[in-house]
Design goal:
- This protein is an alpha/beta fold and about 350 residues long.
- It has two domains: about 200 residues, L-asparaginase, N-terminal domain (Rossmann fold); about 120 residues, Rossmann fold, CATH 3.40.50.
- The protein has nine helices and 16 strands.
- The strands form four sheets. Strands 4-1-5-6-7-8-11-12 form an eight-stranded mixed sheet, with helices on both faces. A four-stranded parallel sheet has the order 13-14-15-16, with helices on both faces.
- The radius of gyration is 20 Å and the shape is globular.
- The mean pLDDT is about 95.
- It binds aspartic acid.
- Aspartic acid binds next to loops.
Length: about 350
């Protein structure tokens, strides 16, 4: 029998109005039960759990990814699928982090939420939740997905693209895994096909392990030096285009070399949402390569940030991490083809 665990972590879906704006509401379980009453025969059987403390996802930390992953891991054998109800702001970060923690997953994990609270008129919560519940009963999906507004996306390829539209997520660098319209269509050709047994990796995250910086015209080496002074163990750099940076400024590359010498793993991703980093293509990119920066290929900066956090928390050596960054662990990147 199909049995889904719904994990409520917070986010707009379950929020209520307060004097200071929307806040998470602990009493979502009974509201959900009333709402799903009519459809219950056609949905997978479900249990509802609240993960305390309920959070606006803007308040989530890497430690919270660990709480969610552990809750799924601890209940893994008792359910055939999982739905994580989450705020949209950092939903793509959590979905990415879960994909690295739950490697080799052989059941569906659907992360979803809504732009309008369940209790309000015109809420998108019902549609998102019903579709996620239906998809959690699929036997073809064996990965962490983000479901939103008719789109089934790979969790570690998703980005939030709209703060106002109900169609809030996209996966610019990887095809949609499926669509929910009049029909429910999942595309088997683009789904992840894991090996035969789950290889979960649930490290506890250390605070402030990884920093994320976006390049901008005028960025000063001093600015970079201040970030490095904070001593992250990893640094994700959102570079231009195919992986370019203002490298004719020797002081800038010197900072990156200093970071490499200090054992800080620097990974370049692109500010562009499509295509991938190729550090050998331009002189401005190959200078990064010489400074010890590794390519994050076509990963979103979100997935790269979650992956670097994960690899560091797993205590891999620097050499191992540099190889693993460019290896697809759960469909988050595509190896470079020249
Ligand atoms: N601030 C909210 C959150 O991410 C927004 C949402 O859920 O849509 O938790």
């Amino acid at each position: 029998m199909k049995k889904t665990l719904i994990l409520y972590t917070g986010g707009t879906l379950g929020m209520r109005r307060s004097a200071s704006g929307y806040v998470p509401d602990a009493d979502l379980g009974s509201a959900l039960q009333r709402l799903l009453e009519d459809a219950v025969d056609r949905l997978p059987h479900y249990h509802f759990q609240t993960l305390e403390p309920l959070l606006d996802s803007a308040d989530m930390q890497p430690q919270d990814w660990y709480r969610i992953a552990t809750q799924i891991g601890d209940n893994y054998s008792q359910y055939t699928g999982f739905v994580v109800l989450h705020g949209t702001d950092t939903m793509a970060y959590t979905a990415s982090a879960l994909s690295f923690a739950l490697q080799g997953l052989d059941k569906p994990v659907l992360v979803t939420g809504s732009q309008i609270p369940l209790r309000e008129m015109r809420s998108d919560a019902y549609n998102n939740l019903i579709a996620a519940l239906l998809l959690s009963g699929s036997e073809d999906i064996k990965e962490v997905c983000l479901y939103f507004s008719g789109k089934l996306l790979r969790g570690n390829r998703a980005v939030k693209v709209s703060a106002g539209s109900l169609d809030a997520f996209a996966s610019p660098n990887y095809p949609s895994l499926g669509e929910v319209g009049i029909q429910v269509n999942v595309d088997p050709n683009v789904l992840l096909n894991p090996g035969d047994s789950p290889q979960f990796q649930m490290p506890e995250f250390a605070d402030g392990g990884v920093a994320l910086v976006k390049l901008f015209p005028g960025i000063s080496p001093f600015f970079l030096s201040k970030i490095l002074e904070y001593q992250p163990r990893g640094l994700v750099i959102e570079t231009y285009g195919t992986g370019n940076a203002p490298t004719n400024n020797a002081a800038f590359t010197a900072q990156l070399e200093k970071a490499a010498e200090a054992g800080i793993i620097c990974v370049a991703v692109s500010q562009c949402l499509e295509n991938q980093v190729d550090l050998g293509k331009y002189a401005t990119g190959s200078a990064l390569l010489r400074s010890g920066v590794v390519s994050g290929l076509d990963m979103t900066s979100i997935a790269c940030y979650a992956k670097l956090n994960h690899l560091l928390a797993m205590r891999y050596s620097a050499a191992e991490i540099k190889v693993l960054v460019g290896t697809s662990l759960c469909g988050e990147c595509t190896p470079l083809h020249h």
